[in-house]
């Protein structure tokens, strides 16, 4: 099984597990549902990676950070449940599972599962729809859109699309539901590694908001800002974000 196939399989299977957890905890409170989803998906992914890629290091949102990864050539970067709030709200579909492989300085494979949508987007090739006519659609958090995203919307004469998890937002650009995702104000490597791998495979533009490259498997796992957009919009988006 290739790394691409493994990423897709594990993200999909973790997502199926999360759907089972969601049903099992349907009558529980949201906090209990979130905790169960985080733990079970993390435990599954760590065990599966230990089985299939025992020599590789793992960085998971839900696990202790093992510094051995800093000297490893291959590191799996996973978010067992991206969008716990949306997962906890029964009926919402905008949450995800992220599985990415970093190898020798670069993202080498990645998959984003959207379990409630029955969709997994995975490298090496991701088909993105052609650009849509009309005003660019800027995808933002439904609760706290960053000022820079609103500035991009204004500069591009665009519209806002509200959505939950980071993975779901990037997936919306890949799927043609939106055109631009700009985030600032705090994320970590596991929030964007798999989505960025998938976005790049779809031919999308990815960078930090100052235009610099996104770097993974760093000692400080904070990676607080991000742009994912259709390539023809990159210059216009960067003109705003680099000046903001």
UniProtKB/TrEMBL annotation:
GO BP: 3'-phosphoadenosine 5'-phosphosulfate metabolic process; sulfate assimilation
Keywords: Magnesium, Metal-binding
Catalytic activity line of the entry: adenosine 3',5'-bisphosphate + H2O = AMP + phosphate
UniProt signal peptide: none
Binding site for Mg(2+): 61, 79, 81-82, 191
Gene3D superfamilies in the cross-refs: 3.40.190.80, Fructose-1,6-Bisphosphatase, subunit A, domain 1
GO MF annotation list: 3'(2'),5'-bisphosphate nucleotidase activity; metal ion binding
Taxonomy, superkingdom: Bacteria
Transmembrane segments: none
One Pfam family per UniProt: Inositol_P
Cofactor: Mg(2+)
Keyword Metal-binding: yes
Protein name: 3'(2'),5-bisphosphonucleoside 3'(2')-phosphohydrolase
Biological source species: Mycobacterium adipatum
